Amino acid sequence: MFEELSNFLAAPELYAPSSAPFWDDEYISKNMLKAHLDSNTDAASRKPGFLDRSANWIAKIAPPAQYTSLLDLGCGPGLYAERFSAAGYSVTGVDFSRRSIGYAKEQTLLHGTNIDYHYQDYLTIDYTEQFDVITLIYLDYAALSDNHRLALLKKVYQALKPNGKFIFDVSTPIMRKGEMCSWKYYENGGFFSEGPYICLESVRQYDEASTKLSQYIVVTEDGVECYCIWDRFFTKEALLSEVQTVGFRCIDATLL
Ligand SMILES: C[S@@+](CC[C@H](N)C(=O)[O-])C[C@H]1O[C@@H](n2cnc3c(N)ncnc32)[C@H](O)[C@@H]1O
Description:
By secondary structure, the protein is of the alpha/beta class. It contains 7 helices and 9 strands. The chain has 2 domains: about 1-20 and about 175-230, no CATH class; about 45-170 and about 235-245, Vaccinia Virus protein VP39 (Rossmann fold, 3-Layer(aba) Sandwich).
């Protein structure tokens, strides 16, 4: 146990993956779905007012009358997808949380909406000139490693029709905060585990890579797991030069 724990306490390599599934874990995904649907927290999805404003903004910059088909990558339980569908887009949603996609599908039956949801890793999509708009919302792009971002950009570019739009959000350097380290004992279980656990939480900055790691080391009776959430901070120039490498042009970066 000591060795396992001390391995995780050293700073991981840039973009090291979590030691166990996070989004699609049977237990964690239950709490994640609760967090997505909790209108009082920004933890998993942003709050409803923000979702409304950003869906309206997207419908303004890519009007559904002209940009008919929309692919929402990392759609979660469909909070944006439902809004896009109501705005008039023909919507496809992709997410690799089985629980979130299950919930999203139930909602289409409940509301009679016609959204096409797929349980899939978005790094494996294989569409060619099929969508007018592709969205990836809530800092997912910046959580990916350099190689995965490049691979995804290529897939998105291929999936878009000529003159299609890729709309996504990232953090900027101004949102960067310091480092921290704390621990908490969850006697009756909590977000990461049903049984009692200790969570060692930290934020590390990788200055040379403009990247932050939020790390959760979870110690249970059964062992230790380490969950890593990466977030790269982009200047407008850095982001533009990255997306241009695969062919994107007419790029607009809006500071919100
Ligand atoms: C922060 S949540 C945002 C959900 C949604 N976009 C929103 O703003 O409400 C990130 C979502 O991306 C999904 N996700 C992360 N990596 C993924 C991948 N490689 N393929 C498919 N879905 C992924 C997660 O399951 C989760 O639902």
